[in-house]
Every structure is written in structure tokens, then in C-alpha cells.
Amino acid sequence: MSKYNFDKIIDRQKTNSMKWDRYAPSVIPLWVADMDFESPPCVIEAMNNRVNHGIYGYPSEPKDFKTNIVNYVKKHYDWEIEENWIVIIPSVVSALYSIAINCTKNSSHIITPKPVYHHLRLAAEQSKRNFDEAELETLENRQFLSLKNLNKVVNKKSELLYFCNPHNPGGTVYRKNELANIIDFCDEHELFICSDEIHAGMVLDNKKHIPIASISEVAANRTITLMSLNKTFNFPGVGLGWMICKNEELRKRASHGLGSIIPNAEIFGYIATAAAIQNGNEWRLALLEYLSKNRQLLIENINQIPGLSLYNMEASYLGWISCEKLSLKDPFKLFLDNGVAFQPGYMFNQPNHLRINIATPQSQLQEALSRIKMAIK
Hints:
It is built from 13 helices and 15 strands. The protein is α/β, with parallel strands linked by helices. The protein has two domains: 18-41 and 281-376, Alpha-Beta Complex (Aspartate Aminotransferase, domain 1); 65-279, Aspartate Aminotransferase, domain 2, CATH 3.40.640.10. Helix 2 packs antiparallel against helix 10 (267-279), helix 3 (65-77) packs across helix 10 (267-279) and helix 4 runs parallel beside helix 5 (118-126). The radius of gyration is 20 Å and the shape is globular.
């Protein structure tokens, strides 16, 4: 029995929650990637202590902050990095956009996976560079970025590959040989990689997250890794992130605009992140156990619903559901009309799919699954 109560229903109406405000109060929102669980007690306590101090001036980076990141990354991902490779950023999303502009030329070509978290694609699109999407391949119900499909879209102007691991929306955790293949491809075609690894702390089934930059010296010099504890410990509203980049020239380019066009990290982002690094792991493990049970509930139910199928969810709380067999123009609307809000597949450029967020108390997920069954009936 966990000492943390993930079954507790917390009313999020009237709290200016993006997740709960978008749709009618009667709708169960299983869309945007934020969890309906309280943050860990250590984070709440650290934030309360800082609030009670009463002065919220401009923060400076806490003394051991980068040392703690170095140790955290070594402990959890077996990756040895140095403090000077780390750049603190206010958010992973803003970095995705700035990297496309700062680290490529106007004439460059960018590759993004498809499907992928929409900000990776939008970052490529809004940079005004040419870009192409490399479709993920599905093998034994598991989606991954294959060399075959990368080779279909690469050209001599290709300079940047956006990568996402654990994959959002698919939930794939890349294996070492798959990462090595991607590195070889990027080395051969002289691409650098921007790897969004924000869900790294949420790998299920006791598997290990492997940062792509940790694979080899070549990988380390070609990669900007973006990480954050916002998702794992559920404080995206106060969050902070960091870039890890060994290559000094690439790191400088990627950092351009920080503190001017991109704001510096704020005080509560430092407080929450430091607390999670130091004391959050027990809570994180309890969370993963709870999410595994929710995933089991999802699998058992979705597989009984005609027309729906779920890809393997190896990490996080985001599931990717194919509705291709429903042959509906807008599956999102069907379920919304029946009281469940998914993340619509068109956001990932695949309108016949839906993304589900299962990070909600089990009773709520159970009710949503009943509504999904009713909608199909």
C-alpha cells in the first residue's frame, strides 16, 4: 500500500487549469499532459517554505544546482556529463523553437518524426526552414523512427533532426541499437539532433531510459538534450528545464537569446526542481506503480472496444490510440460529445488517431472508459 494517495479526487474546477477549463464541467479531460495528482510532498513543502519567506525577488541559480543535475543524470540514466555542458532554461518548449532558428541556416532543411509532440513540428514550421516528417514505423505494435523512413526524407541541406524519447505521443522507449542507428545516420548526413527527453523519468516496467547523447562521443558532440522534471513531478505551471550539450559551439548557438528574448528561469522553478531532485524519488516510484495499473486498465478496456487499438505504452501516461478502423472523419468529436476529451490526432498530423492521458485517479479513468464504450455503441 503506497503512502501516497493517487486515488484522491481533487477538484480542479475554478483553479484556472487549462486542462479542466477548456471543456464543459461534465467532460472528463484526458488531453493535455498534466496530471490530476498532487505534486510530491517534498515539492509542496519546499514551495510553502519559500512562499512563507514573503519576498520573491529575482533569483540567482542555487549554489549546487548544476552539481545536483550532474549527479541526478548519472544516478538515473548512467550518463556522465559535466556542469559546463548544462544550460538552465525556463521551458523545453521555448528551447525547441529557438534551437531551430539559432542552430540552422535559412537554407537548412529540418526533419521531424511523425507523429510527434506538436511543438517539435511547429518549431520546424515556424522557423521558416524547409522541413519533412519521417513517419514512424510500427513493428509488433510499437512505433519507432526507422532508418528506412529517415532515408526517404533526408537531403543534402538537412541539418537538424528533432527527436523525442520517450516518444510523445507513442510512449516508445528507444533501445540502444535503435539509438545507435539514428546516431550513425546523423553522423553520415552531418545532422545535429535536438532530443526532447522530458518524459525520461517515467519509463515503466523497470526499463531504463537511455539518453541518445550518452551512446557515444559522436552522439555527445551532435546532440542538444532537453530535460525537465516538470512532467515527472507534475509542476508544469512553475517549471524549469535544462539543455545538455557537450559541443561548445553548438551550446553557444543554442543558448542565444536566453535572458533576453527567452526569459531566465524563475524562483519557484528552481525551488520545485531542487526539491524533486533531492527528495522526490520515492514518490516517483509510487507514481510509476500507479500509472502501470492505470495502463493495465486502459489496455484491458481499449482492446474490447471495436475499432480502437492502443500502441505499446512503454513510458509516461500518454497513450496513442488508432481509430483508423472507425472510418470517422473526426473521432475526437464523437468522444467529446460523449463526455471525454482526448488530445485530437490532428495536432500530431494524424487525424485518425487520439492521444489519451491516463494520469488521473482510477475511478475517473474507469468512468471515462465507460463513456468511450458508450460512444462506440
